[in-house]
Amino acid sequence: xxxLLGLERVGxxxxxxxxxxxxxxxxxxxxxxxxxxxxxxxxTLFARPVLCDLAASLGSQxxxxxxxxxxxxxxxxxxxxxxxxxxxxxxxxDRIVTTVPGGVAxxxxxxxxxxxxxxxxxxxxxxxxxxxxxxVSQMAFAKRELLDGYLGAVQEVVxxxxxxRTAFVWEGLSSPAQVVWRKAALDVLEVELDENGGSGHExxxxxFDPRQYRIDLGRAPLMRFVIAREPGSGxxxxxxxxxxxxxxxxxxxxxxxxxxxxLAGRAYELAVPQPFRNLVAQARLGMDAKAHEAFxxxxxxxxxxxxxxxxxxxxxxxxxxxxxxxxxxxxxLNDRLRAQARRLRVSLxxxxxxxxxxxxxxxxxREQVVFGTVxxxxxxxxxGADRAMGLFINTLPVRLDxxxxxxxxxxxxxxxxxxxxxxxxxxxxxLAQRCSGVAAPAPLFSALLNYRHNTPAAKSxxxxxxxxxxxERLSGEERTNYPLTLSxxxxxxxxGLTAQVAEPISADRVCGYMQRALEQLADALEQAxxxxxxxxxxxxxxxxxxLLEELNRTAAAYPSQRCIHELFEQxxxxxxxxxxxxxxxxxxxxGELNARANRLAHHLIAFGVKPDQPVAICLExxxxxxxxxxxxxxxxxxxxxxxxxxxxxxxxQVLEDAAPRLLLCDASGRAxxxxxxxxxxxxxxxxxxxxxWAERPASDPNPRALGLTSRHLAYVIYTSGSTGTxxxxxxxxxxxxxxxxxxxGLFGASSKSRVVQFxxxxxxxxxxxxxxxxGSGAALHLPADEIRQASNKLSDYxxxxxxxxxxxxxxLLQASKTLECLASQVLILAGELPKAELIRSLASAAIVxxxxxxxxxxxxTVWNCPADFNGSVVP
Length: 875
Known about the structure:
By secondary structure, the chain is an alpha/beta fold. Among the domains are: 55 residues, Orthogonal Bundle (Non-ribosomal Peptide Synthetase Peptidyl Carrier Protein, Chain A); 199 residues, Chloramphenicol acetyltransferase-like domain (Chloramphenicol Acetyltransferase, 2-Layer Sandwich), CATH 3.30.559.10; 195 residues, Chloramphenicol Acetyltransferase; 153 residues, Rossmann fold. The strands form seven sheets. Strands 5-6-7-2-13-12 form a six-stranded mixed sheet. The protein has a six-stranded mixed sheet with strand order 8-15-14-11-9-10. Strand 14 and strand 15 form a beta hairpin. Helix 12 packs across helix 17, helix 13 packs across helix 14 and helix 13 crosses helix 17. The longest helix is centred in the middle third of the chain and has 21 residues. The protein is elongated, with a radius of gyration of 35 Å. The two termini are 55 Å apart. The C terminus is likely disordered.
């Protein structure tokens, strides 16, 4: 421990993590013990991290016996019994032999894939172009001789390590196989750069971008090199492509270290390379699959919904459309976090996992969150795993409960969960996901955390090589298929963050959330360790101010003392002869509509209608329905709309709950409600040809004389009943006035507009349509129900009536085969969240997402989608 941790003295009661130990050092510790024939399981170290306790457990490790490779240099044929790490028929083996240059003589070994290799190969085959797991880096060489020397050193390293001479074969096989070639020469392509095409570095990056470029996985080594002379400077540029199937972060560091050793003439000092087949043996012959299943079922069995931060659910991406940001954390924060990890005797990774869990929780709206964690994969990989090359890492789900538990207790629970997970580091992700309650094909999670330890050499990232002047590392890039990946870069004495996030989510903001969560975690651990973990904030101060203050500075002057029907009456005074309502062959002018509504309003006042009193209205779609709504408003009541097309039981349920004293109805309304419901309420029949109220004065009732103000109710509309019982939502006049005036301005509604009234009167979007039209002097068009219910008839109606403004549900548009015919000058989407694909397919001049809750005044937000929209839709 003293040698490993760089300490002068270590006591028998000292704690591994309190002294600064972590997972990378744990692997090195186990390897050192193995060399002394003192085996111990890594989970024992995490469970018994005190020195004397660990010492008492030495010798408890039982390593998997790796079966020998039965193919040798003299083999002239390969048979199934010679392949202990994969089951293949003779026909399949012969098929593999045909893919290898030199045939059997050039085959060193054949074995199956590790769990993560299986997943990566799946994503490679799934991608139509490009490859999310093709790692790219660039270097510059002052002279061609330096470049040639570097490539020669790389070839020597390839010759040493079997994984670097491995190809993958799957076509015609019952299961994919990796095939180790005895000899595999580097593939080096020399290209010419355009002198006028910008920097050579950028030209190479564009031409061999992994988002469009792929390599043949059947030809070893899975490394490709592109060289070019840089115009103007005389330098030579090198672009290296390495597939993730044959290496991870540690592999890259080991490979670079060996290349430097060769360049420095110290190749003789390099340790004997460890075959990657050892890892495959551990994964295939180690822990029983039933033990993996039992563990993941206990952890994930009650998780029945995916954890999708920011709504990101596409986990089969190709790496395109991803933004990347790097950020170093303040030194003071680094020191505070390490101090708390030592105090709590846990790994720093445990603190970072808990902080990331809170970011995921608050961005997905869940307390029980699941995200992927990248496991080191070398804990159970056998002798020499700390310096072996290959894809050792694995991605597995971790579940955290961000609830009322105290922060300190949550840190301990997170550490325990990660410690348990280590014993299953070679389990299959597919197996783990099947153990959850999330049904395929929905993803279990879409966010990933990669806590990785960086050596000082990898820390620099650029600048002059430490072995030979004239070599400069220019850039490096890694990708995954996940839409949200955060890497915590542990440099030993410093911490950094790297976020890769699908657009339009900002990668920089994600780094900000993680930094804030870590700051909050440090504060709580220092000052209030019992503080509930769900209280940890993730919003940086500037973003909190932006969200809560800047975005809420929406104050705008509007006639807050006006009632909604007074906006209609203003339009009557402006243009009494303008068309107000169009229903089949019937047309009413603003003056005619106002006169009818006034007469009925005085009749309702005589019935005793008063402010805030609900008045039910149950009529089929017709001018009489519009007259009834306006009359109730003018009389001071709050209209309670009942759609006669709704089930009778629901209508009676609403009537019973709202208990109106008065009901306006026609024959359709009476039939829908039934005689029993009508017995308990006063009925005003609007079916009568010449009702008594038609002879009343046509003057506007004075709201003030009625005691009506803008703070009284305009309507009561019942929600769809997602909780099992419909709820009545009460909306005041002032909210409607605010909404209508904002609509008129935003949608450009005017006296020349033609607005279709599509929504059911029982749905609050009907108020949106009706009042937007009457607040702007537009004509309101009422299509028959048979037209509304058939997209082909509706499209003909919109075109024939020359409709300018339509509010339609996305479901109707998605089901339509003639989307272009459903477009109008202004298309408003409401009722549900529209998908980005739908937005792109519409031809309207302006598209607005008005999805929002009934509990607000019709909607909470409106969001304009520009004509060249290519992002995602958010409410």
